Amino acid sequence: MTIASRRLLSVAAGMLLAVTPAGAGGHPGPVAERPVDGPAVASADDPTEVGWRLLASLNYRTGEKTEELAALEGKLVKVPGFTVPLEDFASSATEFLLVPYVGACIHTPPPPPNQLVYIEMDEGKRAKMDGWNPVWVEGVLSIEMTESVYGYVGFTITGQRVYPYEA
Description:
By secondary structure, the chain is of the alpha+beta class. It has one domain: CATH 2.40.50.870. Helices cover about 15% and strands about 30% of the residues. It has 3 helices and 8 strands, in the order αβααβββββββ. Strands 2-4-5-8-7 form a 5-stranded mixed barrel. Strands 3-6 form a two-stranded antiparallel ribbon. β7 (about 135-150) and β8 form a beta hairpin. The longest helix is centred in the N-terminal third of the chain and has 17 residues, at about 5-20. It is globular and about 40 Å long. It starts with a helix and ends with a strand. The relative contact order is 0.19.
């Protein structure tokens, strides 16, 4: 496992611990660590970095979203995570799920919808599937409930670029 994989896995595990006690669809309580997922200040051409804690602020039962999350609708974003192909044994794909930690969706139950992102690559683009190493996915964010083979997903990104995660 690469250093970047370990770092993202550590951050994802910490976020999962912060989100899980709040209950499904709830808002996580205060965390004493450095904020890692607020939208980063970016130029007009740069994607806004979005972390899993911000995505978890979507109440998938009611559809309520924080102002910060709602402001990202239709915007170019960049989200770190791990790929889960929707086709068995795919080495590249045009559609896949992005999840916050290794192994999500492989075991039941899957993460809640506010911790799953459905990625559909722009026409003609494919992404390499390597579920063991973290990636960045850049694309346009939609906050909408979508059904996948693993259940409901709270977000869709029209993927423009997928590349290895580096902090």
